[in-house]
Amino acid sequence: MAVNRYDDTRAWYAISTYSGYEDKVADSIKQRVDSIEMKGKIFDALVPKEKQIDIKNGKRKVVDRKIFQGYVLVEMKLSDETWYIIRNTPGVTGFIGTGTQPTPVSQKEIEKIKKRMGVENPKFSVSYAIDEVVSITDGPFKGFDGTIAEIDSTKGKLKVMVSMFGRETPVELDALHVKKI
User: Average pLDDT, stretch 32-61?
Assistant: First the structure.
C-alpha cells in the first residue's frame, strides 16, 4: 500500500463493512485503539444514524436508522500502521478511495452528516407506496378501502382516495389508521 508515511493530517475516512456489522466494527476499532495505544493516531469511529419513527402494527416507535448501510466513518491520521489496524479489524472489507489510496471525507460532508445525526425530530418511516390499496381501520371512514395518492413522511400522513357516492374523494389520514390489503 502506498500511503504517505509523513501525512500527519487528522481526517475522516469511510470504511466499508459487512452489512449489519457496522456497530461491531466501530466498537472493535475503539477497543483496539485503547488496547494498542493508538490514541494519538486513531481518534473516533462513528456509525452515522438518524432517528426515525417506525409504524408497525398500528404503533409508533422511535428507532435509530443507519444513514449509510455498510459503512463506518473513522477519524484518524493515515499511515501504514493505522491503515493496517483498521483494514484488519474483523468485519472491515476496505477503505473508500481511489485505487489503493483511501480518500478523506470532506469536512463539509462530515458536518452535514453530523447535523443530520443531531436532528432531534425523528422522521416517520411509512411503509406504504403511492397507488397502493389500503383499508381504513379508524376514524369516520373506517371500513372503506382507498388508494394512496400522496405520502407525507415528515408528518406520517397519507392522502387516500376513497370512492364515495360514485366519485373519488381525497381523505387525509394518519398512517396509523390504515392497513395494507
Answer: 82
- pLDDT exceeds 70 at position 97: yes
Helix (H, G, I), strand (E, B) or coil at 86: helix
Residue 34, pLDDT > 90, answer: no
Secondary structure (DSSP) of 103-136: -EEPHHHHHHHHHHHH--SPEEE----TT-EEEE
Task: For 22-82, give the DSSP string.
Answer: HHHHHHHHHHHHHHTT-TTTEEEEE--EEEEEEEETTEEEEEEEESSTTEEEEEEE--HHH
Cβ-based neighbour number of residue 67 at 10 Å:
13
Q: Which of 85, 152, 88 is nearest to 123 (CA)?
A: 152
The answer to whether 160 touches 170, Cβ cutoff 8 Å, is: yes
Other beta carbons within 10 Å of 88 = 9
